[in-house]
Specification:
Elements lengths: L1 H15 L2 H25 L3 E5 L5 H7 L3 E5 L3 H8 L6 E6 L2 E5 L8 H13 L20 H31 L2 H6 L5 H27 L6 H24 L4 H8 L3 H13 L12 H13 L5 H29 L2
Parallel strand pairs: 1-2, 1-3
Antiparallel strand pairs: 3-4
Helix pairs in contact: 1-8, 2-6, 2-8, 6-8, 6-9, 6-10, 6-11, 6-12, 8-9, 9-10, 9-12, 9-13, 11-12, 12-13
Keywords: Membrane, Transmembrane, Transmembrane helix
Membrane topology: Multi-pass membrane protein
InterPro entries: ABC2_TM
């Protein structure tokens, strides 16, 4: 165990000196922030209004039935907020008249809708100009947030294999893999020390990505269980490609082969009807995506996660049996 820990610390120290590995570590968090920003902008359809102190609390309360209202201490503060790049209207009182302030690049017809609300407030004895109702069509999250976050989590689980293959290729280039083979470290200890990064990095990244996406009520132990199960596949592929390549760029290009079944599995799970999804049962990424999707929707149970993870691990064992000799040959 001590030798495995020493080898793991060596791999960690060496990996953090490589700019490509540092990029692999940071990139998922940047992508998660971008995805969250895009999801928020797609989901935001409410009119946003900045009001100053001249607008009464009663008027603000009525406006809140139709729009998102934010109060500012002065007209200048409201105008500064209106000047930002998003769609925000301003409302102030000048004498006994309401004045709408706009930047000019707001969504089409939003100003007309706001005018209708103001006319209603100014003439409360007349029928409402608009009505508001909410209909639930079954979406708990926006499709972009739901599917995008789950897809990103599956991709991140594969990055651990990239870290392993980069380390293996570098050791082959520096001829240190030969020295390790004649050292007191056994092959199992060598594999365990190198594989540890392939599990540690995806665990930290997936948990961080899910947290950045801002999902509510996430069961993180379930997230970690699915991440570990799918990381086995990437670790095996990372060993195979890294042990049989002498060039980092070529090895990473080989690792990208995994992106094809990932995308096929995810889009198949989304677009294929249930009766045809048996065509994807061979793919561990299909089961991982289904598990992550249930987790972000707060519909997952431990028996469900255990069954999905068990299927993933069974497929992983089959893959390992097929590729074991290639790994052993490449590490000699």
């Amino acid at each position: 165990m001590r030798r495995v820990l020493v080898l793991f610390m060596k791999e960690l120290k060496t990996g953090l000196r490589d700019s490509m590995i540092v990029y692999i570590l940071i990139a998922p968090f940047i992508l998660a922030l971008i995805l969250k920003a895009i999801s928020a902008s797609v989901s935001a359809t409410t009119i946003n209004i900045a009001v100053d102190g001249t607008v009464s609390e009663e008027t603000s309360a009525i406006l809140s039935e139709y729009a998102e209202v934010t109060r500012y201490g002065s007209k200048d503060e409201a105008i500064r907020r209106i000047g930002d790049s998003d769609d925000v209207f301003g409302l102030t009182m000048e004498g006994d008249r309401y004045t709408i302030i706009s930047q000019g690049d707001e969504m089409e017809r939003s100003a007309e809708l706001l005018e209708g609300i103001i006319n209603h407030i100014s003439n409360l004895d007349t029928p409402k100009a608009i009505g508001v109702s909410v209909t639930d069509i079954g979406w708990k999250l926006s499709p972009l947030s739901q599917y995008g976050g789950s897809l990103l989590a599956i991709f991140v689980s594969v990055f651990g294999g990239m870290v392993i293959l980069i380390g293996l290729v570098q050791e082959k280039q520096e001829k240190t893999i030969t020295a390790l083979n004649v050292s007191p470290i056994g092959k199992v200890e060598l594999a365990a020390g190198k594989a540890a990064l392939g599990f540690l990095f995806p665990l930290a990244q997936v948990v961080g990505v899910i947290a950045l996406m801002g999902y509510e009520g996430i069961d993180y132990p379930m997230v970690m269980a699915v991440t570990v199960s799918i990381a086995f596949i990437s670790v095996i592929v990372g060993f195979v490609i890294g042990a049989n390549n002498d060039n980092v760029i070529g090895a990473i290009a080989g690792m990208k082969i995994l992106f094809v079944p990932i995308l096929a599995s995810v889009f198949g799970a989304i677009l294929l009807k249930e009766s045809l999804q048996f065509l994807l049962y061979w793919s561990p990424f299909y089961w991982a995506f289904k598990a992550m999707n249930k987790i972000v929707l707060n519909e997952a149970t431990w028996p469900m996660i255990a069954s999905y993870s068990g299927i993933i691990l069974a497929i992983t064992c089959a893959v390992f049996i097929l590729l074991r000799k290639k790994i052993q040959h490449g590490l000699v």
